[in-house]
Amino acid sequence: MDEPFLYQKIAESIRQEILSGKLKPGDPLPPVRQMKDQWECTVGTVQRAYRDLADQGLLVSRVGQGTRVAHVPPIQAELPMRRAALTHRAEAFLLEALTAGYGLEEVEEALRLAMDRWRVLRQAPQTSQEDCLRFAGSHDMALNWLAAHFAEIVPAYCLRLSFSGSLGGLIALAQGQADLAGCHLLDAESHSYNLPFVQRLLPGRRVALVTLAHRRLGLILPAGNPARLQGLEDLRRPGLRFANRQAGSGTRVWLDIALQRAGIPAEQIQGYADEKMTHSEVALAVAEKQADVGLGLETPARTYGLEFIPLTGERYDLVVCQEQWDWHPVRALVAWLQSNAAAAAISALAGYDARETGQVTWVG
């Protein structure tokens, strides 16, 4: 291992011994030269590891007494130690990934995809928090990007995501469990997106629909499209395994309308009941050969190196009630969405179009 990174591994091993209780307050650490031989590195590398832990308040060094584990009251030590441990675990993972040849952008995207799985598990009502904007609604890759960069867009605030489907997001907004909802619901009668559903689920309320982006929705397939699929009609091929989205999601609403119009009974599609909570899960199912085809967004398909056949374009809106419209993080977010920076960031995602990003439509 390269010397510049080895000090982190040394520090992490000592940190874990402290956190596990193997090393207790006041216990001496091995002399630097002994650690040098043990780790087969330079004296400076060990000194840097010790210095790193001392800066975190975990070690103290005194002349004539060597280096020892610090005497820190448990209550004061718990939070810094937990955060330090988490940070260094993240650094260890990052180092492992970089050593394996992955780039920083690949690692960041992989973490976002992994976090999608955990966000859908957190379905309990979210309590209000002054410095956090609560989002509930349909899964979206641009929102993942926004959550990761929200402190840059709205300093001192965070964006907390809960992916519960388009209908779930509007219901959470109506019940006061979210400040912001996200949806892309196609109305079969008017063939328009979102507005009819907002009027039905939030009757009598003045609500703003802020366009986040237009997105391409289509079939996600293994690289090279070995089954030679071309469209929805192919989904009822015998033996073909399909990965679907959950009921209540905008993607599922579109699919059911499209199948009805094409005269394709859902029961003829093997895997129609195999529901995934996010587009990332659909792409992962195809990538891991748990499914032969799925329905989802282009971005996760490209991330996993999969084939994508576009079927439709859709508008994704953020929904905000008037009561929250003048709240600083909401207004700051809308202002950013109307900027060139937002158009550039969203357009960089595969299958996304920012031509109407930031456009506001009021209802009621």
Descriptors for this entry?
globular; 14 helices; 45% helix; 364 residues; alpha/beta; ten-stranded mixed sheet; two-stranded antiparallel sheet
Detailed description of the structure:
By secondary structure, the protein is an alpha/beta fold. 45% of the residues lie in helices and 20% in strands. It is built from 14 helices and 12 strands. Strands 3, 4, 5, 6, 7, 8, 9, 10, 11 and 12 form a 10-stranded mixed sheet that branches. α6 links the parallel β3 and β4. The N and C termini lie far apart (63 Å).
Topology (elements, then pairings):
Layout lengths: L2 H18 L11 H8 L3 H13 L3 E4 L3 E4 L4 H26 L4 H18 L10 E6 L3 H13 L4 E6 L2 H9 L5 E4 L11 H7 L5 E15 L20 E4 L4 H13 L12 E2 L2 H9 L5 E5 H6 L3 E15 H4 L2 H10 L2 H8 L4 E2 L6 E4 L1
Parallel strand pairs: 3-4, 3-5, 7-8, 7-9
Antiparallel strand pairs: 1-2, 5-10, 6-9, 6-10, 6-11, 6-12
Helix pairs in contact: 1-3, 1-4, 2-3
